[in-house]
Amino acid sequence: MKPYNNKAWWLVLPVFVLVAFSAIIPMMTVVNYSVQDIFDPSTRYFVGTEWYREILSDPRLHDSLVRQFIYSFCVLAIEIPLGIIVALSMPRRGLGVPVSLILLALPLLVPWNVVGTIWQIIGREDIGLYGSLLNGLGIDYNYASSPRDAWITVLIMDVWHWTSLVALLCYSGLRSIPDVYYQAARIDRASAWAVFRYIQLPKLKNVLLIAVMLRFMDSFMIYTEPFVLTGGGPGTATTFLSQTLTQMALGQFDLGRAAAFSLIYFLIILLVTWVFYTAMTHNDDKG
Amino acid sequence: MSLQLENVTLKVRGETYIDEANLQLDSGSFNVLLGHTLAGKTTLMRLMAGLDTPSRGRVWLGGRDMTDVPVRQRNVSMVYQQFINYPTLTVFDNIASPLKQAKVARAEIQRRVEETAHMLGIDHLLGRYPQALSGGQQQRTAMARALVKDADLVLFDEPLVNLDYKLRESLRVEMRKLFASRDTVAVYATTEPAEALALGGTTVLLKEGRIVQSGPSGEVYRQPCNMEAASLFGEPPINLLAAEIAGGECRIGRQRLPLPAAWQHLEEGHYRLGVRPHHVSLAPLATGETLCLPVQVRVAEIGGSETFLHMTHDEIDLVAHLGGIHELAVDQALEIHLPCAEMFVFEPDGELLLSPAFPATAACA
Amino acid sequence: MAEIRLAQLAHSYQDNPSAPEDYALRRMEHVWEQGGAYALLGPSGCGKSTLLNIMSGLLAPSEGEVLFDGKAVNALSPQQRNIAQVFQFPVVYDTMTVFDNLAFPLRNQGKPKATVEARVREVAAALEIEPLLARKARNLTADEKQKVSMGRGLVRDDVAAILFDEPLTVIDPQLKWRLRRKLKEIHQRFNVTMVYVTHDQLEAATFADKIAVMYGGQIVQFGTPRELFETPRHTFVGYFIGSPGMNLLELEIVAGRAHCHGIELALPEAWHARLAAQEGARLQLGIRPEFVELVPADEATLTGRVDLIQDQGSFKIVDVALTADPTQLVKVRVDEYTSLAEETLGLHLPEAWMRFYANDLLLEISDEAV
Questions:
Q1: CA distance linking residue B89 with residue B98, whole number of Å
Q2: Cβ contact (<8 Å) for C177 and B165?
Q3: 3-state DSSP call for residue C169?
Q4: Regarding the domain with residue range B239-364, which homologous superfamily does it belong to in the CATH classification?
Q5: Given this structure, which CATH class describes domain B2-232?
Q6: Do strands C193-198 and C37-41 pair parallel, antiparallel, or not at all (unpaired)?
Q7: Percent of chain B scoring above 70 in pLDDT
Q8: Where are the transmembrane segments (chain A) (predicted)?
Q9: ipTM of this predicted complex?
């Protein structure tokens, strides 16, 4: 292709500037911090990979990383199938469509910190709807004192907040399947499971890929809700990676270490996302 | 304005899409690109329009080198297989849109839109919206939009394929008439040989990105330059038989036939014989030499006034297009007669050696 | 295997249909016999797909009944009716191999493995897709996918009928030939009722033993391709069947005799009387382009001038503008060698091929009367 003129570059320029300021420059700053020991703006030493070595052997990171993986895994394992089930049971035409769409959109409109506050109240064992109900049933539930209960509450809160997103994505995917596929399946005497397995699921693959990646990245970076609900406790039961990082950077003002931590964190997300992506698309070209 | 392609080649990532296309399309001509799906018809049109730039070669329009001129600066219009109209504009505004873009005076727009709409028989629909129209009317609207601006080059990419068979028939005749009095270069892509013939003008045969043959449609049909061209241009496709001329005989498979007088001058060796389905006869012919072959009936497809008889001779598939209705049972054994005067003889590599002699075409055609 | 009877069937997509125009299908009685190869032919919007979907059970008719071998099946689903249907655009299960696609309907019925294997191989061989069996369906071309869709329709040997909804739309013309031939062979081999919906008359005529021509929600004629061609019972059939369609010329009655554009027709007395009796109705003379003969101008009463010649390769279509009314064109089909040098030509209309219509319906007369 021969360029006729270079005017088009000017149109792309704002995006370059935007990306530079929003991503590239901050990231480079972090890289810069991560290889130095900073005492004050004028006193800094180059320390090379020392922060990285220290972080990688830090038990705090190990603990919260394991906690984080278990948490993200649970989030995906619950929200993805649940979202698909919700999407499948949604009406395909009539008045039910806008009603169910609005109902599903509601949790998504609630700000993160408000979600935390809501569940702080709902989960209370004395006056909370959910907490008092469980205690009334004879189950000893207290998210403020029991690490297990706190952890489960954070998980339920996330499921409540984000399953709608998965459901909405799946619903849009299902809507794009032409009727003729269902007709063909009826004629082929396919069971409901076969319809799901061979028509709906393959057609949902692309939206599921997006849903899985979004939910993984989001849950892996969860911060606000547990921070509001439990402040990371009791103990460190709900202290996830981002909170560990914040404690390090702000609480202890350990900028170099926090920068190295950030980069490792970033690489983990990138790697896992890439693994998901390849795993879900790899058999496209086969056959 | 005439359009000229000079060694136009398009390669994308090492794959050749168009291979050395050379074409001269005259001003006022109607040109049909005929080829199977994926033969490169759309790609060639995109190169003509300037939507793509060739990797090699030049595109000339009216003597000017247009190879590097972007499509926006060319006076080109295109009609697609799908009916593409602006859904929020009325038929009038749809047709007027290219003129408005060109800042034509309002009175002039009014006049030209009405004239074009009248030509295409949609003048009573000008106030309607596209979704309120039938498929045929929508495609007429799209065609009117392409015709209204007097483009130098109008491209039709299988425009009738999504329409009813009957509608196609009448639009084909209309298209011929529409372009008869214009100095536009019209290019029309199709997969149907019958459509190429019905549209008249010039036919360009395409196969796998190569131009196999081009010329006046009737001539290309009657004088295909090789076996490829003969089998592309014909529906059902031409019957091809491997034959050997040796010892004063014509051998087809195990069949040994006396060598027809018309082929006495051919050297001994291998040839390929081509005979169009409508020249195959079940009854011996009163005049002229014939080759007689035993065949087995595979299936007889019966139309209203005609029969398509599919047969095999020694594992070779043959088809006859017969007038009248012939009800024949599967596996029935028959003899067919192939008139030598109507047969094509090809070299083993496919080059045409002999073709039937045709009388001069009609004086008033 | 079944005979399909449509009893007093009608369908409207509206809730309270009153006028005939409200019906997508007008009240009809019709029988598809067991083992026949039928086509349902008509322009888009004539109701043919509606009728097909009612037969397969994808759509419930608003009035009347569908009977399979005399048993009402209105309440039965497509599965229960045991119908196979092939759609206009290929429907394949993307993630399965071609083999699994073909085996799918059989496995859903719980057929034993050996039966599945044998049947799939047989159908794949018939459709010439054996080399594709191991491939993933998503990587096939459109026409290969359509063959797989067809294969799924053909693979069950116990179906009541196979319905095709314009199955060759996405197929190249050259391939259409082969596929149509395949379908016809398969029909002859498997002896199953097949109904084939299309708007292409050639496709219909070559596939079917009998064609139902639909127009405005009605079956206007049901007959062999030959009957439709030679004796259309409705002007629409004359127009729609044949390429180009039948020539239709307006007639008027002058002093009890039939005239065409001012020229009295050479007809037996009985016909003049029959036509004169219909005075007041719209009278038309229909004749196929294949049957009009071109003669020197001085040998015929009806004359015209050549307006356009379409060279179709194996034949030519000549448009002749009548001298009496140049806006009236008569199409004539002549062979590829005919050359037309004369300006003015005579048109001879053989009596045996003239058909007469009153308000679009065929007029008949008994042989004795002539």
A1: 13
A2: no
A3: coil
A4: Nucleic acid-binding proteins (2.40.50.140)
A5: alpha beta
A6: parallel
A7: 98
A8: 69-89, 101-122, 150-171, 258-277
A9: 0.78
